[in-house]
Specification:
The protein is mostly beta strands. Helix content is 7%, strand content 21%. Strand 8 and strand 9 form a beta hairpin.
Length: 331
């Protein structure tokens, strides 16, 4: 590499000499390397914190595309979900969907929902939207549910070994531990706080991704899904893929009458007041890139129990539906 040299201040008759700038550069020495830690580091706080707001992040996502070997896969795009279970579901928690349940008909046989019918054979997954069972549950696997847009997680109760399905949170993986605090605060947790409820410690110990809490235990500003409306019942809001709500305020005006409510802002901007004892799950519903998918062909809509939608005007070739020409003079 060429180095810059300066002409030295020598006498006019002396031979020309150069001084390199390299010898004037300051030298930097490496710092002392600390020995490696023998104990694993403590988990960071972000491991248990609610996921970040997707509107504030600019992270790109990948969609799976295919070579256009056939016209049906030329425009086919799907979210990449390689972490899903490849086998069959847990059969004791499923039942067959048979009869006219796929035809859009009510109990008297009349079509009440148009453009429904056909579709692939399915089994209904029994999803627990109440989550009243306390204790630690382990996530065994994440599965695809053909009856809903979000993914579901198979839980194993550590105390009894009982299985159950819940709507999975975004970022939930096999091996995670989740709990439900709808039945009350456990004695071990209350004893660790000194016998009295500390709101800050309680939020730090319970507001983890996938845990189910009464809405009054959720910190303000936390994103939640599977939100209930009344006490003792299951979730009714934010159950589809990528949906969530935000707790914005807690009403203490009715503390004497016991009619306190919690205000939740849904993803659509609607503001709802729900019971303080209604259920809510921390996080965002899984499969947030579901709405970016492209089916690629009409046949995949038929597999999903969706029939074509045709305008009635387009099906009638009668002249009465053709607008008159402005150039024809009628007497």
């Amino acid at each position: 590499m060429l180095q810059l040299r300066l002409l030295s201040a020598a006498s006019p008759g002396a031979p020309c000499r150069y001084i390199s700038l390299k010898q004037f550069r300051p030298r930097y020495y490496a710092s002392v390397v600390e020995p490696e830690q023998t104990t694993p580091p403590a988990p960071a706080a972000m491991d248990f914190a609610p996921p970040p707001n997707p509107k504030q992040t600019n992270a790109a996502f990948m969609m799976r595309t295919y070579k256009p070997r056939t016209p049906g896969v030329r425009h086919l795009k799907r979210p990449i979900n390689d972490h899903l279970w490849k086998g069959r579901p847990f059969l004791p928690l499923t039942f067959a969907k048979i009869g006219h349940g796929k035809g859009g008909r009510n109990n008297s046989g009349r079509i009440t929902v148009r453009h429904r019918g056909g579709g692939h054979k399915r089994r209904i997954r029994i999803v627990d939207f109440d989550r009243m069972t306390p204790g630690v549950h382990t996530v065994e696997r994440i599965e695809h549910d053909p009856g809903r847009s979000a993914h579901i997680a198979l839980l194993n109760e550590e105390a009894t070994g009982k299985k159950s399905y819940i709507v999975a949170a975004d970022g939930m993986m096999p091996g995670d531990k989740v709990q439900s605090y709808r039945a009350g605060i456990p004695r071990e947790l209350l004893a660790s706080m000194g016998g009295a409820v500390d709101p800050g410690v309680l939020a730090a110990r319970t507001a983890w991704r996938g845990n189910c809490l009464p809405v009054h235990m959720v910190p303000i500003g936390t994103m939640i899904y599977n939100i209930g409306s009344t006490k003792g019942k299951g979730a009714v809001f934010c159950r589809s893929a990528g949906t969530y709500g935000v707790v914005i305020s807690k009403d203490n005006a009715g503390e004497t009458t016991g009619q306190r409510c919690v205000t939740v802002r849904l993803q659509s901007g609607e503001v709802r007041r729900v019971s303080r004892d209604a259920c809510a799950t921390i996080g965002i519903a899984s499969n947030p890139n579901y709405h970016h998918r492209q089916l690629g062909k009409a046949g995949r809509s038929r597999w999903l129990n969706i029939r074509p939608t045709v305008r009635g005007l387009a099906m009638n070739a009668g002249a009465s539906h053709i607008p008159p020409s402005p150039y024809i003079v009628r007497s």
